[in-house]
TrEMBL record:
InterPro entries documented for this protein: Calcineurin-like_PHP, Metallo-depent_PP-like, PGAP5/Cdc1/Ted1
GO biological process terms held by the UniProt record: GPI anchor biosynthetic process
Chief place where the protein resides: membrane
Name of the featured protein: Calcineurin-like phosphoesterase domain-containing protein
UniProt-recorded Gene Ontology molecular function terms: hydrolase activity
Record-annotated membrane-spanning stretches: 323-342
Location in the cell: Membrane
Pfam families: Metallophos
Keyword field: Membrane, Transmembrane, Transmembrane helix
Domain Calcineurin-like phosphoesterase stretches: 100-244
Annotated signal sequence range: none
Organism, as annotated: Petrolisthes cinctipes (Flat porcelain crab)
Amino acid sequence: MIMTGFNVCSRLRIMKKWIIVTVVMLVVLVNEWLSYTFTAVRWPSVPSTQGDSVRVLFAADPQILSFQSDSEPAFPLNLVTIWDADRFVSRGFHLALWWTRPDIVVFLGDLLNDGSIFNDSDFNSSLHHFRHLMHIPNYVKHTIFVPGDNDIGGEGLDQVTEHKVRRFFSFFNQTTTQQYKFVDFIQMRAMDDYDIATSTLPRKDGRIRVLLSHMPLLLKTKSTIKKKILEQHPSFIFSGHDHGSFHFKASKTEAHAHEFHLLREEHHVWEFEGAGAQLHEVSVPTCSYRMGKQDTGYGLAVIEGSGKVLYTVLWLPSRFTQLWIYLTALGLILTILLFGFINPIKNFLFQYLRAHHHAFTFLKVTLKYHRV
């Protein structure tokens, strides 16, 4: 009987171990592989409808974290939070690269979470970390880095300075203009009112002009910003900063938004006409869940020679949902382990009571005697 009981307990312990191992492997498999695979195969393909085209992948507000950030928990928990956030951004980026094989990659600002407050040495170290996470393959023809307020200042009390601007463009080896095929990419800085340093390319027939900005441009009411927009004669605008997926529409003669639309649908491709009288601006959602957004993703635009732009959002799996799944699995494992500890305690108490039942019987009789 003793051996039989021992075998049963041994089998129960083995079963509990297998349950725990199975739960861990299943949760990791779903969260870290199957969810991304299932998401990627459902992304829409966006082929060109009119011959030659330019494929552009947009990454907005990755805000790669640093250990100097006040928003992170204390050591050693910050090692886990920073690693997980950086890994999520990097993994989604390379998945989007694999799916789209773009000609151009554009980072729409806020590349580093604390870039504006870094000294030059820390900025350079974080830049190397950024390049490691967001490695660009050789088939990409050009990579454009647009500065954001977290990179050079411009929001609240964090002022833009000439040194921060020069440092950003120097460290990233950037100019404010880039030409590829029939598209002119022009960076616009709208984060400071006193100086908007933007180069002006000479206009040529048959070329499409795309403005790139961290801050949305068509929402701005400053006359200096409107003037700079109109001087560039853009066909289209892409921006970031707001962490959401939006579409603004304006007249090319006014450069101020009069229509606003949410671009939230999954597996949908929008078509915009850039050659007409309307000026379109698309705000690309953040690609980092640490911005507090449930919905994160990358933007893909196919720009055709006629001026038509095909655009979609490559939505990523919700990391918050995945983290809740991890917590639920952890609770289940702790429950299994807790019951594993309870049974030995119950068995010990049962054996103890059986071994000392005579003493308890005597105590019971004694107490009964005193009550009488």
